Amino acid sequence: xxxxxxxxxxxxxxxxxxxxxxxxxxxxxxxxxxxxxxxxxxxxxxxxxxxxxxxxxxxxxxxxxxxxxxxxxxxxxxxxxxxxxxxxxxxxxxxxxxxxxxxxxxxxxxxxxxxxxxxxxxxxxxxxxxxxxxxxxxxx
Length: 140
Prior knowledge:
The chain has helices at 11-32, 40-51, 64-126. It has a domain at 8-96: Orthogonal Bundle (Helix Hairpins). It is mostly helical. Helices cover 69% and strands 0% of the residues.
C-alpha cells in the first residue's frame, strides 16, 4: 500500500484544523481541569504549550477528559509540526530536483523525436506496398 505524498496544499487545512483543536482544547482544559486551569485563557495557554511540545504548564491532568484532551492536543501539535516540516522540505527538494527533471525531459523529447522519425520512415516503406490488399500487409 502506497501512502499519498504530502503536498504544500495540505498545510493550510492542517493549520486550520490545528487552530480549531487549540480552541476546543482550551475549552476542554478549562472544563475538565477546573482545579488546574482556572479560565479559558489559561486553558488556551495550557493547550498551546501541549501543541508546541513544551509539555504541561501547571501539572499533569487529573481527569480522564483532561488526559484525552491532552493526548489529542499533543498528537495534533506533532502532526502539524510534521506537516509544516514536510512542506518546507519539499520546497528544498523541488529546487534540487529541477535540473534533473529538465535533463529527463530533454532525453524524453529526443526519444520521441527519434520515434517519430522511425514512424515516418516505416510509413514511407509501407507506402510502396498495396495496403488495400490484406495479403500484401505485413503481419505485426
